[in-house]
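Worked example

This section walks through a single chain of length 306. The input is the sequence exactly as stored; nothing has been trimmed or padded.
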Amino acid sequence: MRNRKSRVRNQFTFGFAGAAILLMLSHTVWAQAASPTPVTNDPAPTDSSQLSTVTVSGVLPNNVLPTANPVSSVFGADMPIQDTPRSVSVVSQELLQTANILGPEDFMKVAPSTYSNNQWGGANMPMIRGQMGEVYQNGMERTTRSDGLPMSFNSVESMDIITGPPSSVYGPDQYTGGYINWSTKQPYFDGWHGSSTFLTGYWDTYRWTEDIGGPLIPNVLAFRLSYQGENSGSYYDNVIGAQSTDVYFALTYTPSEKFTLKINTEFFEDKFNEPTGWNRPIQQLISDGLYYTGEPAGGAEFSRSH
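Given that input, the structure is written out below as tokens.
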């Protein structure tokens, strides 16, 4: 009986080991069959100790890297962003479209510690590092108020967002949080270009843009024309949405290498509400004495004067 148990144990051990070996071999064969063979145009290597070169290439039509172009909005001269001793966020036209930058409230998508405080019911001036920031266009200060006047990005080709006070090349300024420098659209000298965009579906938003440009005289005279219109509703009832029209025109004249004349102009019209705040009392606040109805303490005259 003891010998019989030993033979059974040996047969079981041999069968289990054989099954494990067969399983490993089948897994190796399956892995070799499932692994795709790299496709390469290079000839097969003659030496088995050398590996063939595999080149992987892709198409990137839009360059959103901040190192694509030099930065001149910090010290007035073109410098690589790696050599600029300031914190700079470069926002190209491709990044503006990719991140869907439609207003100052979207700055936080592309620049850290940059946002808009929605002062007086509308986003306008940027807040950088908790303080108000300046807005420049092609290195010149814009006439911008901080009480919610609308802004149009129709003329913006790219922008640089810099934290900290502007350098001395911009002259004296009143805001120290940082500044944003807009670079406007430039004419095309390499050929004719045109584009059309249409946006809809976000709280009755309807916005369209037409952009065209090209050379009038090869290598001498070129233009750029961009039109943007909007007829949008609002999240709130009985409130006028954004109804705007923006036309931007740029002309560049280069008769020689030593002389260049750049002209650009913009017309912007917008109809909007400038609310000083929302007041939504409920009956419970009135019943509990937490909300005071009627005229203010100073009477009607105080209300009209303030």
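What to look for: Residues 135 and 141 are 6 Å apart (CA to CA).
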